[in-house]
Amino acid sequence: MFHPSTLTSMSFWPRRRFRITPLRVLLAFIVVGVVFWYSLNRQEAPRQPCSVPDEFTEKLHDLANRAHLVLAKLGVVHFLCLGGLWGQARIGRALPWARKIELCLVDTLRDDVLITKTFREVGLSATYLHAAGIYRVQEHEVGEDAPKIEVVVFEEDSVTKMVRRVGWTRRVLPPDCELSPSLQCFPPQLVIPPLPMKQFGGYLLPVPREGIELQKYHYPNDWWLEIKPTDCIEPDVNHT
Question: Membrane-spanning residues where (predicted)?
Fold first, then answer.
């Protein structure tokens, strides 16, 4: 008969102790990190209400007017655009679900330091987002969810003879408005000053010429539709 120790020594797969090595620790951390990142990205962001309180909207209107006064002081062409222009054209104020107002600016100053400084002088914080070509304007020391104005910067292109978006993510695109729709080009005659002034939440703000003609360039596929947000929560009218 074989001794048990002999059988063990003859085993084809010898038993080995699991050793903790730096490489295995690193691999474990990577696996845990990937699993955590995947689970985090699968979590749905909480849906916002489909309308904001009236107080919030009034603050938006006031902020839009203050931004307009700053840009007027600087002498640059600016006007309601995008969602802000839709609100003015449809109801003469911000749309019920708006959490920001967009103003467009045709930049002839090329001086973001001067622009941010001028906003700061009237108690507003203006952060220039170089990638997007947008000034984000808010009250000082407020949270991300506070009312904000986005001043979207455009410039007149000497090649296409159109007005186009700026920002370094668009600098790499060919100067072709049809091939690069993210340039959001439009003809300069729509914003020749002096621009019309229209009621917007109790204030007079500049708008482009020819009504909503500008929207046909910024919303070429659905400018004739009234699109409401679908990823929001309707208030419960039966709740008491």
Answer: 21-40
